[in-house]
Specification:
Blueprint: H1 2-19, E1 51-59, E2 68-69, E3 74-80, E4 82-87, E5 93-96, E6 100-103, E7 109-112, E8 120-128, E9 136-137
């Protein structure tokens, strides 16, 4: 029994030394990512193969997307400006430069740049079945 406890202790010590804790300084010259968004989502693709897509979009002041749905959750990271997402039957969501949001699957929505003077630039990324379109127009709002 003493051997297994010692073995577990050594494994924990090894894990601690390998990964450290946030309170410890890391090696000079290395970097680690900052977590911006962590969200459990529904509706991810279930096919054997998925395609990862990364897109950029620029909105002039006052511009908007078409009224649409997505077949899979879509993550939007705001590079510049403020993004307003209006979702049918839900409260609008806004995200400013440096923030990220997830657009849910199968909800009708429109994305806006509500500013009268500032441009909006976003990076969009998501996983889908390879043949799926980026969005499906949802008709009139």
């Amino acid at each position: 029994m003493n051997v297994s406890v010692k073995s577990i202790g050594l494994k924990l010590l090894f894990a601690f030394l390998m990964y450290g804790t946030p309170a410890l300084a890391h090696d000079p010259g290395t970097t680690k990512p900052d977590l911006l968004l962590r969200e459990i989502v529904k509706g991810m693709p279930q096919s054997e193969e998925q395609e990862l897509r990364v897109l950029t979009a620029s909105f002039k002041p006052g511009e908007k997307t078409v009224f649409h749905t997505h077949r899979y959750p879509v993550t939007v990271y705001v590079l510049e400006g403020t993004f307003t997402l209006e979702l049918e039957g839900r409260k609008p969501i806004t995200a400013s430069a440096g923030q990220a949001i997830v657009e849910p699957a199968n909800v009708k929505m429109t994305g806006y740049n509500r500013s009268v003077s500032e441009p909006l630039r976003v990076v969009i990324f998501y996983a889908s079945n390879p043949a799926a379109p980026f969005l499906d127009p949802a008709g009139h709002h």
